[in-house]
Specification:
Layout lengths: L18 H16 L4 E2 L1 H11 L6 H4 L6 H14 L11 E2 L1 H16 L7 H10 L4 H10 L9
Helix pairs in contact: 1-2, 2-4, 4-7, 5-6
């Protein structure tokens, strides 16, 4: 799904994030550092969600009946290893343009659900909406295509 032309990636502080999602994004900084990256990319956020929210509400969105969470975690870690890393060790990782675009998708998902704040489930759906993104590539290995965002 493409982003509307008038909607350009915004700064993180302009988004109304839930407390849980704010913690996930903060923890994603450590994952970006772990992989020697200057930017927090959608795969870093996705991996953090998978690691920290193992049995929570995101599980039904990404896991099919026969897909193991550990398999998706391993595939996401492998994907991050293949991405180019340009780390500036003197500063904290910041959200990439791609991550801010995914936040716009997540914000739209929250609004579709009638919510004022972006939750972790909205973030997962936003990451899935990045059709040609690396996380969609990982998920397509298991589903043939990235799953449609699931609403419950």
């Amino acid at each position: 799904m493409t982003m509307p032309e008038q909607e350009q990636p915004r700064e993180l502080r302009s988004f109304h994030l839930s407390k849980d999602l704010r913690k996930i994004i903060d923890a994603s900084k450590a994952v970006a550092k772990e992989y020697n990256s200057s930017f927090i990319e959608p795969p870093h956020i996705f991996l953090t969600l998978l690691r920290l929210q193992r049995d929570a509400e995101i599980r039904p969105i990404i896991l099919g009946k026969y897909v193991r969470l550990e398999s998706i975690i391993a595939s996401t870690e492998s994907l991050i290893h293949r991405e180019p890393n340009i780390a500036d060790q003197t500063r904290e990782p910041e959200l990439s343009k791609r991550s801010r675009t995914v936040l716009i998708f997540a914000e739209a998902e929250a609004k579709n659900e009638g919510e004022d704040e972006i939750r972790t489930t909205d973030m997962v759906r936003g990451i899935i909406r990045e059709e040609k993104g690396p996380v969609a590539t990982v998920l397509s290995m298991y589903y043939g295509t990235a799953p449609e965002p699931f609403y419950y």
